[in-house]
Description:
By secondary structure, the protein is mainly alpha-helical. It contains 26 helices and 4 strands.
Amino acid sequence: MAACTGSSKRTETLVDTRSTEEILADDLPVPEEPDALESAAIRFYVPPQHMQLRCLVKQLDKGEASLVDLKKNLEYAASVLEFLYTEETRRMVDLEDELSDIPSDSVPSEVRNWLASTFTRRKGLAAGCNEDKLRFRSIVHAVQAGIFVDRMYRRSSHMAALSYPPGVVTELKQVDKWSFDVFALNDASGDHSLKFVLYELLTRYDLISRFKIPVSALISFVDSLEVGYSKHKNPYHNLIHAADVTQTIHYLLLKTGMLHWLSELEIFATIFAAAIHDYEHTGTTNNFHVQTRSDISLLYNDHAVLENHHVSAVYRLLQNNDEVNILSNLSKDDWRELRSLVVEMVLATDMSCHFEQIKVMKSLLQQPDAIDKAKALSLLLHTADISHPAKPWSLHHRWTFSLLEEFFRQGDKEAELGLPFSPLCDRKSTMVAQSQIGFIDFIVEPTFTVMTEMIEKIMTPLMEEACLLGLDGFRRSSVNSISCSDGKSTKSDGSCSLASVDFNSFKATWIREVHQNKETWRSQAAKGNKGKTGERRRSQGSRIRYKSHNCQSVSCRPTGSQLGHLWMCVCFYMIPATNTYPQGGTESEDQEMDHPISGVEVAEVVKQLPGGGAPGADVILPGYLKALDVVMLSWLTRLCNIAWTSGAVPLDWQTGVVVPIFKSGEGVFQL
C-alpha cells in the first residue's frame, strides 16, 4: 500500500511501512500492559508529526479497512487511553474535588492552578537549585499540605477495612489532644493500642492509599509489631509506650503546623519511626548490655545497642516476610529516602546523644540557613519519646512508676549477677520525686524549649509567605471519621490549617503541665521528708544532706576530703538512688535538707562545702560511680561543668571525659 503521510506543512512523515491489514491484525496486549501503549499509538494516538488517526480515516475512505476491524481497534485504543487517563489523573480528580471547597477569594487562581499541576507530579529539586526556588518550593509544600491535611481528616477508616469497637471509637475521638489517654485506649482495644493508633493515623494521613500499602499486610505488620513489643513483658517499653509516642508525634505535627513543612513520604517516615522506635526492647539499658556483654552489644560494638536493634529488627521483619511488608510498593527512591530518615530518627532516641543533639540544634537555630529536616524530625521524635513529664499528672505519674518498675527489674538482675546497681535501679533506696524533678529540670524542659524554638524558626517564615499568597484566612474544619463496628461513624471538629497554628497555646500547654508536675513532685518530696529519721538512711550508709545556711565557706581549691564531699553532694542531688557513703561515714554527717537542690544552686554548694567532719580521702570514692549509665553521666557532667565554671573544681575537660580528682597529691579516679 502507499504510505500514509501527515498534513504537516514542514514535512511529510512516513507513519508505518506495514499494510493496514498487518497493523490491524496485530495481537492485542492487555490494555494495562506497557506494550499496549505502543500498539495503541500505532492505531490511534496522534502525535502532530504522525497524524496516525488521519491515516486510518483515509484507509477507511479507500475501503482498505473493514468497519468491524477499525471499530475493534479504535475501541482497544480507547481502553488503553482510559487506563492511562485514570492512572495519570486519579490524584488530580481528588485534588479538584478538594479545591472546589476552597472559597474563590481565599486562594489566587494562579496558586490554584499551580497547586493542581504540582500536587499530582512531585519531582525532586534539581541540583544547584537557587534559594528563591527553594523558598518557592516550601510554599508548594505548605499549600499542598493545607489541602492534604483537610482531605486526611475526611477519610473514613472503613475504607481501610478495619473494624473499630465502640470503645476504641470513643477514645480515638481524643487522638488530636495533648491529654489523649493511651491507657484507656489500650483497655478499650484489648491491649491493641498500637494497632489502632497506627492504623488510624496512616488512614487519616491518607498514607495507605498514597503508598499503596496492602491492608492485609498492614494488619499483619502491626500484629507482628505488638508481638515484638510484648516479647520481654516490659512495664514501660512496650506497645503502649509505642502507641503513646506515635500519638504524641501526631499531635506535634498537627498542632504546630509541621505537617505543612513535610512531604507525604516524610510524614510517613515520622509516623513509622515513632511506631517502631522501641521494637523488641529488652527492658534493660544500653549500659546493662555493654556490662553484661550481651549478643546485641557485641553485634553493634557497644554503640546505640538497643536503638540499632530496634530499627534493624523491624527491617529484617519486613524483608523476610512478604505478608507483613507494608513498604513493598514504594519506589526505590522512596524506599531509600524513608529508610534513611527512619534510621536517623530511631538512632537519635539513644539518650547518650541527648546533649549533643540539643547542642547541634541550638547551633542551627543561630544560623540563617534552613534547618535540616532529618535533624528536625529526630529532635521531634526524641522529644515525644521523653514527653510524659509534660503530660497531665494522671498520665505522667503512671508512666513514671511503670518506668521505675522496669528499672527495678534491671536492678534485680544486676544484684543476681553481682553487678553494682545502676542509677534508679535499687528498689530499696530510689527516691522517686527527686529523680523526676532532676529529669524535668535538666532533660525534659530544656528539650521542649529547644524543640519549640526550632518549630517557630521553621514555621514562622512559612506562615508569613503563605499569608503573602492570600492564605491568611485559609481555614477549614477537620472532620475525623472513624469506622464503628456497626458501620456508623463519629465525627469531631477541629482545625489544622496554617492559619490555625498557635505557637503560644502549644507552648503554654506543655509549660503548664511541666510546672504542675514538678510542683506536685516537690510537694510529695516534702511530705516524704517530714517525720523521717536518719535511721533508714544510716542503715544504707550515711547520705550527704546539707542545708545551705549551715554550710561554711571554703577555699576555691578544696582539699581531697572536701572534693569528696563535693562529688557526693553532686551525686546525691542528681542521682539520689545511689548517694551512699561506703562504710566509714559518721552519723553526724546525716543532716536533713529542706528541698532538693536545683542545678542553679550547685555552684553555691561548691563554694560552701563544710569544713569539718569530712570523712578521709581514702573512703570518699563509692563504687557506684563506676556503674553510671550514659544518661546519668550526662546529668553529672552538666553539674560538674557548673562547678568548674565557678572555679571550685580542678577538672581536665580536654578529652571530653569527666576526670574528678578525689585525693590530694595522689590518685585520680576516672569515670
